[in-house]
Amino acid sequence: MNNHKKILMIIPDGVSLRNFVYTSFYKQAQAMGLDIVFLNLTPLPLSELGLKEVIPQTIKQHPLTDSFKNAKKRVELNQNINRFNDNVYNKYWFPLKYSGYKSVIKHSITKLLILMFNSEKGLLSLRRRIQNLESKTEYYNSCYDLIKQEQPDLVYCASQRAILAIAPIQAAKQIGIPTIGFVFSWDNLPKSMLDVETDYYHVWSKHMKQELLTYYPFVKDEQITVTGTPQFEPHYNTDIIVSKTEFYKHYHLNANTTYFCFSGDDITTSPQDPLYLKDVALAIEALNAEGHQLGLIFRRCPVDFSKRFDAVLDEFKHFIVPIAPLWNAIGDGWNAKLPTLEDSKLLVNMAEHTAGVMNLGSSMVFDYVAHNKPCGYMNYHYNRENTVVKGVHVYDYVHFRSMPNANAVYWLDHPDRIQASLLSMLNHSSVVTRNAANWFSKINEQPSNEASIRILTTINLTLNEK
Question: Which superkingdom heads the taxonomic lineage of this protein's source (predicted)?
């Protein structure tokens, strides 16, 4: 007779795959006597990876949910402006995109809901209505029947912002099964992205726990456990790190060249990314003219399939090597572009075998500091007159306020200063990487390679309490 406790883990998106499928989480759960069954809401067949999965017959949210969710986000941000007397929360609201009559109807409903519910009391009403909407769908009924059949001891949601996870969580609650939600990103809570309400929450750090308590007063201290995130665990897995010689050979890199990495953002976050890439390339070209032998690996944002970098890549093809993220397209739409296990290995080896990374405010700073490597943040923009202006609006976002020391990264404030920063990164300033490591410790519970163990231990404790 199998006495193992069964955990039904909701996997709604690619980030969840990266955190809980492509790490050692599953094997560690088995070693601890936990039976993991994945409620798979992605197009990727997990059974082909040798994992246990169940798939609801119907996966479709209520047609009104998006309108209510967008209204909730706007109202919540409005309340945060009032609560904290801080207009930064206005920057988290992106304009509604109109692409046909359906979106016009959807967004018109959103605007009406904002007018009707723009208060703390209204926010509570919107939260409840979203849950009620998702509990009236065929998808909910399918989840309810599936959970009844599987009889898990606990339901774990790998993403607190996935709308498709609301129905199975509500079904589990109705049946009386405890639920835990994982807050998957370091910037989500200030941005009003707690859409899946569970009995308990797992967060990256004490800092994130305080954010959860601050932004969502209905969540109590005893409901939150600091676990860290499995996201960075692969960086500490020496079994997947290849030699520099093998890495260089596989990607046809010059054995005598030291490479940096330029990590691209999506077009919404960083529309001027091609200009930044060209500025970095010009700086490297100038340094090479002085006798250095430097190159650049370009890793585009996995969901950016635009051709906006092509001209720069072609102009500097003698030392820029594009290495595309190893994501697979399984079906149509951006959410059908999913990460692979091979991409996790690629990112680990890229961080191991390059001198540093440059980007616009990405969490890649933490991927690189795991290898004791520095990060440079692009910190200027071009105005309409094509003049360089110091500063980029993204650094106003709340999650950057967590940086305990401003010198945790190299601030690339002007194209003319990139050369000097690259040379400093080559000299591997211990001050900058030490400050980045302190930032990482604040953002993610240490040791970083034990997050899965902490999550599973907490699951066991929750089950024992129940």
Answer: Bacteria
